[in-house]
Amino acid sequence: MIHRSPLPDVDIPTTTLPDYVLARAAELGDKPALIDGTSGRTLTYAALAGGVRALAGGLVARGFVPGDVLALLSPNIPEYAIVFHGVAYAGGAITTINPTYTEREIHHQLVDAGAKILVTVAPFFEAARKAAEGTGIGPDDIYVIGDVEGGQPFSALLGAPLAEQVPVDPESTVVLPYSSGTTGLSKGVMLSHRNLVANIAQVLGPAEMREDETLVAVLPFFHIYGMQVLMNCGLRAGATVVTLPRFDLEQFLSVHQEYGVTRSFVAPPIVVALAKHPLVDKFDMSKLEQVFSGAAPLSAELAVEAGARLGCEVVQGYGMTELSPVSHLTPVGMFKPGSAGITAPNTEMRIVDPASGEDLGVGADGEIWVRGPQVMKGYLNNPQATALTLDEDGWLHTGDIGHVDEDHHIFVVDRLKELIKYKGFQVPPAELEALLLTHPAVADAAVVGLDDEEAGEIPVAYVVLKAGQDVSAEEIQEFVAGQVAHYKQIRRLHFIDAVPKSASGKILRRILKEQAKG
Questions:
Q1: DSSP labels for 381-393?
Q2: Which distant-in-sequence residues (6+ apart) come within 8 Å of 226 by Cβ?
Q3: What are the chain's domains?
Q4: pLDDT for 166
Q5: Rounded to whole angstroms, what are the CA distances from 75 to 97, 222, 246?
Q6: Proportion of the chain above pLDDT 70, given as a percent
């Protein structure tokens, strides 16, 4: 059976992302759109819109045409929105890169996305320059926000402001975030103007986000959650978004107190801190109306504990990069402990038995399938992976297991997919296993995610050594750490005699997880 949203459909205009998000920029004028939480530097709505048009003008003058891709490697700063929407206004697509990536990981994304220009910040310039070697980006194609020797200033990319959006089909790709999807290595997710506009409209109604609100953006804008729910929804609502480049609990709490943050979008590890850390009691959080958790499952107990301490609702939603990202959310006043909310407007869901393919009813656990205007176009350069995730009828197979109750609330209980969620970040086991196998002492390897109270899950490796090799677990962990982002690092490593596998050679991660539980 198809489970439809109990919420009424919302209107989804046929327009481009910048025109939709910044529709009221002129009206809001001098109101702060984004504030740098570390320095207080403020970007007004008028300045934001002006910067977007100037960047678009500079890109067009440089020969940037619809279909071209610009890569952005940066932490959360106010200029992020200028670059993001400036590229879209020029008719191009933007691929957002995790600034903690290694040069190898950055290089892969630049090549796969076909980026022609790279914008970064001073602290990451050297890594960006090295990562760009051997890609379609030359030394003169790298622009830097901030002062750095040898780098072209971002201001050099600005030009005469464009009066209007470069004409594009709303179905054209506007952003290429990278996701591991339901399994495997990182892939570019093709999201269109329509996908993102639709999802903003689907979120803003039930979330009741207001113009008089102040939001804190510590979740990264390169990640679809921060990009859409924080940056784009916040700007469309006319709210003020306070950016933080990374999570530091004291700074995070200080921003709440200084700016009177009304709504805090977080991942479960931050909820743990809000519920348990003594530092929370030293700050005034009285303006906080709601904490919204996403990116990984949040337990009912933790939500209730944090909510009682903060004096506000601590709710959660559900989605994935391939869903732009929201398919389920908790409207104001509809909190239910352990629930990831109800299906978003204009969205359909099925709960499907993974073994039989049959639809399941209320209360039965099965794979969550989603269909709606927020569903991605597909994976870039990867029709095979697209076909495995998105069927011919438009249903996206999430790889997550859950059930829906009689009140339309979804409860996510497990995952079919092998992805590990470390503090809300995706860690594909296949990538770490491939890397482990390049170590000269390793004969075979398997990586699984094991439960961890603080991180949600941690990557744990099981390694078979080649005969006669004498190497420590720490040495292998350091070997991996030197080649991947911090969140992908192997937190524990065990030596075993053989990796359990099926007759077809597939790693039986379930067995390793059961053994770890004792």
A1: T-HHHHHHHB-TT
A2: 76, 217, 219, 220, 265
A3: 18-167 (3.40.50.980), 420-517 (3.30.300.30)
A4: 98
A5: 9, 8, 7
A6: 98
